[in-house]
Amino acid sequence: IDVADEAGGAKMRLPATPARMEALLAKCRFTNGADKGTVLALYEQTAAAILGSLDKLSVAGLPLVRGDVWCSPSRLAEALNYCSSLRAVAVVGARLDDDGVAELVAGLKDGALPALEVLALGHNRYGARGVEAVCGVFRRGVAPRLQNLSFAFMPIGDAGAAAVAAAVATGAALPPRLAVTMVLCDVGDEGARSIAAALSLAGPGCRFQLMFNRIGVAGKSAVLAALEARQGWAAFSHMFNLIQMRYAPGSAMLTRAMGRGGRISSESGRLLAS
User: Fold this and answer.
1) Is 51 within 8 Å of 115 (Cβ atoms)?
2) Chain centroid to CA 104: how far?
3) Residues 2-29: pLDDT tens digits?
4) Taking all residues of the chain, what is their mean pLDDT, rounded to a whole number?
5) C-alpha distance from residue 122 to each of 22, 57, 70, 130, 263 (Å)
6) How far, in Å, CA of 42 to CA of 72, rounded?
7) Per residue in 60-97, pLDDT tens?
8) CA–CA gap between residue 171 and residue 200 (Å, rounded)
9) Does 1 have pLDDT greater than 50?
10) Contact assessment for residue 112 and residue 82, using Cβ atoms and an 8 Å cutoff
11) What's the angle, vertex CA 36, arms to CA 43 and CA 76, rounded to 5?
12) Burial class (CB in 10 A: 0-12, 13-18, 19+), 249
């Protein structure tokens, strides 16, 4: 059975929320007009029970297209607003650009996802503007228990790293004990220095994973100095998080190509990691 779309991505529908079902029922005819309210009430109970009990959710490889009736970023946000028990969500390989991820986070209600611990938004197509939109949602009390935020395999570059650093530096913008993954994100020395400057203002549990970027000696030195000032000397763990790919000729291009390849694989549904 072929369940892929024309571009090779997953083909499915997102859950219909009660509001969406009400709009669909408005177009239907019932033999007894009272049946419509009964059907909607039963659906509301069912949707709230199912979505409210979800522990994990993955839409890996599912294209989220703005304006799509069934699979748009806003439709996913509507469903997530009902997921009060959700602890991990992966929106990877969804082909989200800056406008798409902005639509997704804008659709989340204040205080949504109260139990969420892991948010994987990597393997998409947005850049610094999208990162700013994601970081801004935490100011509205969304996902207050978040522990892991992933932008892995994203072309966010130094500007994206600076956007995360700015959110970290505000203190209240991000949850206090948060691990931010920026693996294969095309971050260089400028982005690394932004993160290093922000670490002195970050919460006590805030940490970054910066492997396989294009950070040079100056950037690594700045981050290491900031980490040592916060956590003391832990050579192996600090250096491991700063393993880079910039010592061979063409390594910057190789890093970008690896990130692009990971995104393409994830969009096809073959790579499900965050």
Assistant:
1) no
2) 10
3) 445 565 555 677 877 878 777 777 777 7
4) 84
5) 33, 15, 22, 11, 8
6) 25
7) 999 999 999 889 999 999 999 999 999 999 999 999 99
8) 10
9) no
10) no
11) 40
12) exposed
Q: Which helix (H) or strand (E) holds 262?
A: helix 251-267
- Angle at Cα 196 formed by Cα 192 and Cα 198, nearest 5°? 115
Dist. CA 264–CA 7, nearest whole Å: 11
Residue 31: burial class (beta carbons within 10 Å; 0-12, 13-18, 19+): exposed
Question: What separation in angstroms does the CA of 117 have from each of 37, 41, 150?
Answer: 36, 31, 11
Task: Output b/e per residue, 215-230; b: 16+ Cβ within 10 A.
Answer: beeebbbbbbebbeee
User: What is the distance, to the nearest Å, from the Cα of residue 235 to the centroid of all Cα atoms in its chain?
Assistant: 29
3-state SS, residue 260? helix
Integer Cα distance of 29 and 39 in angstroms: 12
Six-digit token string for 21: 């079902």
Structure tokens at 182: 């920026």
Contacts of 233 (CB under 8 A, 6+ apart): none
> What 3-state class would DSSP assign to 254?
helix
CA angle 136, 139, 140 (to 5 degrees): 110
Hey, which residues does 179 pair with through a beta bridge?
148, 207
Cα separation values, 183 from 21, 48, 154, 259, Å: 40, 36, 8, 9
Question: What single-letter amino acid sits at 102?
Answer: A
